[in-house]
Design goal:
The protein has one domain. Helices cover 79% and strands 0% of the residues. It has 4 helices and no strands. The longest helix is centred in the last third of the chain and has 42 residues. The chain is elongated and about 60 Å long.
Length: 154
């Protein structure tokens, strides 16, 4: 495959990930502005969801996955990534338990506040769980690819 085509496909994929993030988190930004402390962790969840989806379903478009050492490195790196994702999610949960999500939108009406807090919780839950499930499935896929590469099965 042409290297320029691979670069364009990868740039398009990451542009779509950023576009999804912007579209999904725009209501939070419109309501809370910069007072929402979880923009970075939310972006990490969306980014890892995009990366794991691409690795699981479109591994032909990752040019570095052809190398055996990269696959082995990904297998040994994903448990640490999974622990990192779980830690970020538990920080979000602890904020909700200790401080409360309602403290983010004090200037909103109670009805808007309830709706926005549900939206934030479910959105974070969706992207956190999808990135964690992807991080669990990536080593299985890499081990399968390593087995195929070592035994030359296609």
């Amino acid at each position: 495959m042409n290297i320029y085509r691979l670069i364009r496909i990868n740039l398009f994929w990451y542009a779509m990930v950023v576009l999804v993030y912007l579209i999904v988190y725009l209501p939070i930004y419109n309501s809370l502005g910069c007072n929402y402390p979880f923009y970075l962790s939310s972006f990490i969840f969306v980014l890892f969801t995009g990366i794991t989806t691409k690795l699981l379903f479109f591994d032909n478009y990752f040019p570095v996955i052809k190398y055996l050492y990269v696959k082995v490195g990904v297998v040994f790196l994903t448990p640490f990534v999974l622990l990192f994702l779980v830690d970020i999610y538990f920080e979000f949960i602890l904020f909700g338990d200790n401080v409360g999500y309602q403290s983010l939108g004090n200037e909103l009406s109670p009805l808007e506040q309830i709706g926005l807090m549900k939206y934030i919780k479910y959105l974070t839950l969706f992207f956190a769980v999808s990135s964690m499930i992807g991080s669990l499935l990536i080593p299985i896929k890499m081990i399968r690819l390593i087995y195929r590469q070592l035994n030359q099965i296609r």
